[in-house]
Design goal:
- Keywords: Membrane, Transmembrane, Transmembrane helix.
- The chain is mostly helical.
- It is 90% helix and 0% strand.
- It is built from two helices and no strands.
- The relative contact order is 0.11.
Length: 51
């Protein structure tokens, strides 16, 4: 199971437990985590290229 499917499953579980105000906050947090994940991939590739 990859990172993206894990995130989607976590979001689904959270949606069932939380109300709408909390869902929005959690989606923002997940968005930030996903954004960092997208950025760190090319950074790791660049580091691999250096070594």
């Amino acid at each position: 199971m990859n990172f993206v499917t894990k995130l989607k499953l976590i979001v689904k579980k959270i949606k069932l437990k939380m109300n709408k105000g909390k869902i929005i906050k959690i989606l923002i947090i997940c968005g930030i985590i996903f954004f960092i994940y997208l950025i760190h991939e090319p950074v790791i590739d660049m580091l691999k290229g250096l070594f």
